Amino acid sequence: MKEIDLKKLKDTLPKTAQVTVGKERSICYIDCEVKPGLSDSDFEMVKNWQRQIIGELISEFYTYTEGGRWRIWLKRVQIEFINVWETDINNFLKDSL
Question: Do the domain assignments include residue 94?
Fold first, then answer.
């Protein structure tokens, strides 16, 4: 089973950022939102860090607003999220119902 460390992922972003885990049509994703948005260079740097943390589990990045909100779609494999908070679990379970 592959692991994703949510604490490491959250540490790549400013303290004001929101990171949520969800599921849509049995596909897991990680939403990242930063207000105010990151500069283009900082956004690319953060995505590179996230690629290093998540690795081959990434299916694609989908950007809603450049440097402000993006979604990381994950591959359909068994994934274990580590270093999660109760709110992370509640958000994931809410999306799974």
Answer: no
Question: Which residues, 6 or more positions from 5, have their beta carbon under 8 angstroms from its beta carbon?
Answer: 53, 82, 83
| pLDDT tens digits, one per residue of 8-20 | 999 999 998 999 8
Q: Is 77 helix (H, G, I), strand (E, B) or coil?
A: coil
For residue 64, report the phi and psi dihedrals to the nearest 5 degrees: -85, -50
Of 74, 64, 61, the closest CA to residue 34 belongs to: 64
Containing domain of residue 33, as a range? Answer: 2-75+82-86
Amino acid sitting at position 1: M
pTM given for the model = 0.85
pLDDT for 15-35, tens place per residue?
A: 989 998 888 888 999 999 999
Classify burial at 29, counting beta carbons within 10 Å of its beta carbon; exposed 0-12, middle 13-18, buried 19 or more.
middle
Residue 41's domain is classified under what CATH number? 3.30.980
What is the chain's percent helix, strand, coil content, to nearest 5? 35, 35, 25
